Fold:
Amino acid sequence: MLAPTEILAKQHYHTISRHFRDLHAAPDTADTAPTHARRRPFRVELITGAVKGRAREQLLTDLAAGDIDVLVGTHALLTDNVAGAFKRLGLVVIDEVPYLNNWVFINDSFCAAL
Structure:
């Protein structure tokens, strides 16, 4: 989910986390372990320009591994290293579309991920 400000991204992150806290993610169909052994808590994460260093690297690693179910953030989602890291991208939600209409430069890797 893409939000235009860090404050709004944090609000969305907290709301989504609260709604999904008791859910479990569906197992990867390629996994051969028993279904009950493959279930994991539904994972919601937040990325903004303020997330840097090791925390950002770990988030990108987990995103590429498919361990993050919902990623909420600001324009930081549109950078090559984030947009290109999605293992499976099923839905993109953009809040404040009029604000984001100025961003016609959305990079190729993000569009390819769509």
